[in-house]
Amino acid sequence: MTDVAHATRPCPLCGGAGVTPVFYPPLVRCGGCGLVFRNLPRVQERVQEEFDDRYQRPQEEQRIQERRRALYRGFLARHRPAPGRNRLLDVGCGTGEFLLLARAEGWDVMGIEIAKAGVEGARKAGLPVHLGSLTTLDLPESSFDLVTLWNVLDFVPDPVEQARAAHRVLAPGGVFVARVVNLAPHAALYRASRLLRRWPRVAAALDRQYFFSQVSFSARTLRQTLERAGFEAIEVANSLPTRGDPYRTLLRGGDRALQAVKRGVFALTRLVAACSGGRVLVGPSLLATAVKEAGRG
After folding, report:
1. CA-CA distance, 37 to 11, in Å (whole number)?
2. Coil, strand, or helix at residue 122?
3. What is the pLDDT of residues 57-96, one digit of tens each?
4. Do β-strands 5-6 and 18-21 pair in parallel, antiparallel, or remain unpaired?
5. If 0-12 CB within 10 Å is exposed, 13-18 middle and 19+ buried, where does residue 255 land?
6. By the 8 A CB rule, do 97 and 72 touch?
7. Domain residue spans in the chain?
8. How does DSSP classify residue 16?
């Protein structure tokens, strides 16, 4: 797994073509910037097919969103609208759970979603949601004060382009927020599952807990992505976890058990981050916030 290969597509961060296979196919690591990504063609089509299928099963999507509500509410408690600064765009909004909560807090909301079934669900809830992507829809420049991407930036084939598009539609002084899967702990879980193969049940349980996105960010590569997009005041931190077992990775009763584990793990990740001055982030997900510098168009 150390041979250098040629990328099917350029690195989504630096554009490099030299990659090294890592973990399992089709995952590769860019030799230029270190980004880990899926070395596959037709990435956008594959992602759209995946989400089209997901929103055809509304009960599963409802389960996931119910377990994200505390995450959303905690975020909205920290980010309040202000007079004349209350326009919010949620990219990859799905059926609109976050938008409904944001609207209840006083935000003037709009959503974007690539999956038709997701758009239909959001519109049934009375939400203004457009079918398409941030890079293809012709939204007015400087038209939003807050742009959010909840576990979206790591699923798109072009994260730098997406972040640049978000930068364009933000008003000067506007805030960009992206939550993504954190590569480091998921890579550790993958390696642990390989080491524990002689105990199949333990290894299988670990196999269900790690996840590699289309683009698997570290704190460093996430920061580099936002820097390339032109953002300022970039902060990357451990994200609050979702509640319980939203993706049914454990057997019956696992929801409560996984919630207890998540509380302990999050407390530990906060301690590690505090002791390292925020340099070591080992939480399962990362939350990045950044600002479009005032005065920039």
Report:
1. 8
2. helix
3. 888 888 889 999 999 999 999 999 999 999 999 999 999 9
4. antiparallel
5. middle
6. yes
7. 1-41, 43-291
8. -
pLDDT(1) > 70: no
Q: Among candidates 116, 99, 284, 80, which has minimal Cα distance to 188?
A: 284
Evaluate whether 150 touches 98 at the Cβ level (below 8 Å): yes
Reading the block at residue 65, the tokens are 């969103």
**Whether 19 contacts 39, CB under 8 Å:** yes
pLDDT in tens, 9-43: 889 999 998 999 999 999 999 999 999 999 988 87
**What local confidence, expressed as pLDDT, does residue 50 receive?**
80
Report the first-to-last Cα separation within the chain, whole angstroms: 45
Is there a contact between 119 and 130 (Cβ–Cβ < 8 Å)?
yes
Q: Which long-range contacts (CB under 8 A, 24 or more apart) does 7-14 make?
A: 7/39, 8/39, 8/40, 8/41, 9/39, 9/40, 9/41, 9/43, 9/157, 11/35, 11/37, 12/37, 12/157, 12/158, 12/159, 12/160, 12/215, 13/159, 13/160, 13/215, 13/221, 13/224, 13/225, 13/228
Q: Is the whole model's pTM more than 0.85, yes or no? A: yes
Nearest to 95 by CA among 73, 111, 80: 111
Half-sphere exposure of 218 (CA within 13 A, CB side): 13
Structurally, at CATH architecture level, domain 43-291 sits in: 3-Layer(aba) Sandwich (3.40)
Convert the pLDDT of each residue in 217-231 to its tens digit.
999 999 999 999 999
Q: What is the DSSP letter of 217?
A: B
State the Cα–Cα distance between residues 140 and 232, nearest whole angstrom.
21
35 Rama class: left (phi>0) / alpha (psi -120 to 50) / beta: beta
